[in-house]
Amino acid sequence: MEKRNLYLHTTPVEEAKERYYRAVKECISIRTEEIPVDRSLGRVTAEAVYARLCSPLFNASAMDGIAVEAKKTRGASEEHPLVLRRGEDFQVVDTGDPIREPYDAVIMAEDLLEIDEDTVQIMAAVAPWNHIRPIGEDIVAGEMLLPGHHRIRPVDIGVLLGGGILQVRVHASPSVGIIPTGTEMIPPGQEPEDGQIIDSNSGMFAALVQQYGGEPDRFPIIHDDYEKIRETVKEAVSRDDLVIVNAGSSAGTEDYTVHVLRELGEVLIHGVAIKPGKPVILAIVDHKPVIGLPGYPVSAYIDFETFVKPVIELFTGSSLKARPLEQAVISKRLVSSLKHKEYVRVKVGEVNGRLVASPLARGAAAATSLVKADGVCIIDQNLEGYEAGEQVQVELWRPKDEIRHTIVSVGSHDLIMDFLADLLPDLFPGVHLSSTHVGSMAGLMALKRGEAHIAPTHLLDEETGVYNIAYLKRIFPDREMALIKGVSRIQGLMVKKGNPKGIRGVEDLPGCRYANRQRGAGTRVLLDHLLKQAGIRPEQIEGYELEAATHMAAAALVKDGGVDAAMGIYAAAKAMDLSFIEVGEEEYDFAIERKNLELPFIQDFIQALQSEQFKSRVKEAGGYGTENAGKIILI
Ligand SMILES: Nc1nc2c(c(=O)[nH]1)N[C@H]1C(S)=C(S)[C@@H](COP(=O)(O)OP(=O)(O)OC[C@H]3O[C@@H](n4cnc5c(N)ncnc54)[C@H](O)[C@@H]3O)O[C@H]1N2
Ligand code: MOO
C-alpha cells in the first residue's frame, strides 16, 4: 500500500488559529498603495488622512437673501421697519455665495418686504454671523478626516474630496493564489466523463477572495503529481501574498499537498478539531502563508471562513463585520462528537414569535446546504449536541427582517414547493418560502411542536380512503386546525425509459431493485398500502431499506443509480426523462393551525396557490390537478 498521511491528532480550532496567526503576523509584509479617492470604496486606510483644505473655504451665505452689516440693522422692529438700499446697505446673495467685508450677516428672502428692485424693508435687527457659515465650520485644514484601519464608505469619499484630498493611501489588496489539484478534476464548461469532477471550488474561492477585498490569482488544475504541485506552489509563493491549495489535504494515497509544503516550508498545523474541515493544512513557505483546504465544498468553505478570511483581513488591515448571533430553538436532535467543533447548516424561520432552526444535510459534500442555509448552528467541542427543542446559538447568514417574512414549511416534498418558492417573491415582494423536506408525518410533528407555519402532507387514511383530514384529527385532537388544499397529483412507479423490466405495478417489484422513501413519507405509506393489498412483504423487495429524501432524488437513483424502480410523482419522472406507471391519484395539501391562516404571508401563499401563474407552471410540469388549489377546509 502507498503511503497515507494517517493523523490521529487534531488541534482545537482556537489554538490552531492563534498559533498560525502569530506565525503569519511575524513573517508577512503588509503592502500599501496610493489610489484615487473616488475608487477607494471598501478599501482600508493605511494611515490617518488629514484635510488639505477647509470647508467651507470662505465665509458663505447659508440662505438665499441679502448680505448686510449687522450694526446697520439695529433698531428695526415691526413698529419701526427699517429701509435698506442695494449697494449702500445690502447686496443680494444666494446660498453658498461668499460674504465679504463690510458685510457680516445675511437676512433670508422671506424676512424682507420688497419695496422696489433696489429697496427693501426689514422688521427685525440681526446679529453678526446671522445665516453665515464661517470658514472651516465643517472641516479645518490639517484636521484628521479618517483614522488608519478605517474601511472607506461613500460618506467618507465625500468628506475626503470636500477636504481637498484626491489620493488616499490604503492597504494593498492581497493577491491570493488559488491552486486546484486532482487528476480527476476538469474545469467548468468541459463535459465530465466517467469519474471526472468539475472544479467548482476555485470559482467559489475566487469570489470569496474578492468579497473580502483580495485579488484572486487562479492557476489551472494541477494533476496529482508531486513535482508539478511543488513547482506550482513555488511559482504561486513567488508572485502572491497568500496561497490556497485545494484538495489532497487528507489521507489518500495521492494527497501530496502536505508533503510538498513540508519540503518547501513549515507545516504548523495539519488537522483541526473542526467539522466539516478537519484536514486543513496551515503552512508557511518563503514567508508566505499557504493554506491547504479540503476538497469537499462545505469543508472548504467552512475552513475558508475560519482560517483564510482572517489572513486576508491581516493584509487588508481591517476585520469585516462578524455575522450576528441569535438564540433559536433547534427542531431536531443534534448529536455531535467531543472530537470537534461542529458547524451545522440550518434553515431559520420565525414561528409563533420565536426563531426556529432546522438542520440541513450535514455531509461535507452537500454544497447545496450552504445555498439553502439561513445560518449555522455552532456546536462547541465540549458539547455532545442538543436535544430537539433546546435553545441554541445560530450565526445568521440572512437578514433577520427577511427571516421574519419567510413562510416556514416542514413536511413532504413536491416540485410545487420549488415553483411556489420561486413565484412568491415575484407576486409579493419580500415574502419568501423556506421548505424542509422530512416527509408528511415528520412535518405534522414539527407543526405540532410549533416549528413550522405549514406542513405539506399527503397521507392516505386506509379506512376512509380520504387524504390528510383523518391524520389531522388524530394528531391534533384539541387544536383548531385547517387544511389549505394544494394539488392532486399522480403517483406511480418511475422506471427506466422504455420500461426494460416490463414492470406493470407493485406486484412486479419482487425481483427488481427498488429505492424507497424515508419512514413517514406519504409515498412510502402509499407503497406499504399497495404492497399489503397485493400480499407482498417488504423483505421480498430488494432496496426497501434504501431511502431517498425526495421524489427527484428517487428519480435520480432510477436514472443513474442502478435502481429499476421507485415510487414517485409523474412530474419527477418527466423531469428525469423516465417512464412512468400510474398507480393512483392523491391529494397534496398544507396543514396549518387555524389561527395562523390570517397571517399576511399565509394569505399571500393562498393567493399564490390560486394564481394563474402557479396553475400554468404546474400544468407544464404535468401530472397535477389544481381545481381545489387554495381552498380552505376547517377541521
Ligand atoms: N482515511 C481517511 N479518509 C479521509 C479522511 C480521513 O481523516 N481519513 N478525511 C475525510 C475528510 S474529513 C475530508 S474533508 C476529505 C478531504 O479530502 P481531500 O482534501 O483529500 O480531497 P480529495 O480527496 O482530493 O477530494 C475529495 C472530494 O472533494 C471534492 N473536490 C475536490 N476538489 C474539488 C474542487 N476543486 N471543486 C469541487 N469539488 C472538489 C470532490 O468531490 C472530491 O472527490 O477526506 C476524507 N477522507
Ligand atoms: O473535515 Mo471533513 O470536512 O469533516 O468532511
Automatic annotation (TrEMBL):
GO terms for cellular component: cytosol. The keyword Phosphoprotein does not apply. This is Molybdopterin molybdenumtransferase. May be involved in the biosynthesis of molybdopterin. Catalyzes the insertion of molybdate into adenylated molybdopterin with the concomitant release of AMP. Gene3D superfamilies: MoaB/Mog-like domain, MoeA, C-terminal, domain IV, Molybdopterin biosynthesis moea protein, domain 2, Molybdopterin biosynthesis moea protein, domain 3, Periplasmic binding protein-like II. Its EC number is 2.10.1.1. PROSITE patterns: MOCF_BIOSYNTHESIS_2 (PS01079). It catalyses: adenylyl-molybdopterin + molybdate = Mo-molybdopterin + AMP + H(+). Its cofactor is Mg(2+). Belongs to the MoeA family. Keywords: Magnesium, Metal-binding, Molybdenum, Molybdenum cofactor biosynthesis, Transferase. The keyword Magnesium applies. CDD domains: MoeA (cd00887). It is an enzyme of class 2 (transferase). PANTHER family: MOLYBDOPTERIN BIOSYNTHESIS PROTEIN, MOLYBDOPTERIN MOLYBDENUMTRANSFERASE. GO terms for molecular function: metal ion binding; molybdopterin molybdotransferase activity. GO terms for biological process: Mo-molybdopterin cofactor biosynthetic process. Residues 177-314 form the MoaB/Mog domain.
